[in-house]
Design a protein that fits this description.
mainly alpha
Length: 175
Amino acid sequence: MSRFSIAVMLAAALGWAPALVAEQEACENDAGGNKLPVSLNDVMVSLVNHSADPIWIAAWKEPSSERQWRDLERLAYQLEIAGKLLTIPGTGPNDVAWASDPAWQAYSLSLSQIGERAVAAVSSRDKAAISAVGDDLVALCEACHIDFKPAEPTGGKYGELSPTAQDFEDDKAGE
């Protein structure tokens, strides 16, 4: 007799069967049982924005130390990972619908691919490739937000959007 069979019989004997069935049904109805402990919006504003902004900023303001380059490479990996995370529903009110939408899946996988290109660009310290990745990030994020979150891009989280080129011009003027 297998361990699973023994576990099922034990569960039935102890009256746990309804709980096991409910847990199994919840897993089957939830993208193969995977669910993030946070909302997809939290992943986007806390991980994607946090990782993407320094990458496209590097096209304007190149890292000046080995440590800054290593930090940028870590962020590129985080961006690649974030794309995969966004394919899994989280705790937000729209997460199951978003994660099951083919367009959302395509945007998420594109983000992961851009992250992979960001890793290569940063690793090789190719400023032109970093700039191209940054441009692709902006285009991808804007397209996804138009389709899924047009009214409030950050969902009110943190209250700020990504910096712009003007922010860096203002920094230079103050130096």
